[in-house]
Amino acid sequence: MTELLTVHEAAERLGTDVMTLVEIVNVGDIVPAISPKPRVLSGGEVWKNWREIRLSEDDIALFKAEISRRRFEDFKADYSDIYTPDSRPGGRGLEFGPGWTNILKTYADGLRSLVIEGKQAAWLRWGKEKFGALRLFSDYILSVERQVIDLHREAHRSSLVTCQECGEPARLRFGYGVCLTLCERHKHIVGEPDPSRDGIILDLDAWTLKESETKE
Question: Over 80: is that where the pLDDT of 46 sits?
Fold first, then answer.
């Protein structure tokens, strides 16, 4: 029988950190050779028994592909003309779930269209998830500020109805200390649900609370 790899050994082999592998296992789409039942805690903490995870050689290939997806490696290659990573000290990257890749591409296509129209104007620098919504940050010239703002708003709106793990239809889900936009299959990621705030969206631009149109 082939010897299984500990999570530390697998992380070293894959060029990533242990918690990235733990988070992938907790998502539940890839089940390694040994996968103890996950324990999702309040505040989004996971896997008190993560040290028991073991990966086979076959698992390594699956995790390698998933890590590439989470690093948006295909997007970075296809949109190198639009995506210019923030290289300043403390610069950040694309810090959100891979389920929003199509939203990211739509946004980048919008920036690219401005270039095609002769309005060289904007470059995507970085992005993050905040309060369950996608926030993208670009450099742009004032002549197309309105168009870029519209692209930001559409990405923000789309992210609140799209699972940030898989891209399927979803809604904002609250746990205790965490809120993420997830589908039924991935809703466990927030841990124990907080019914008192279920379906509420925090509008990041207006800083007001409103009911989600997608509440079930």
Answer: no
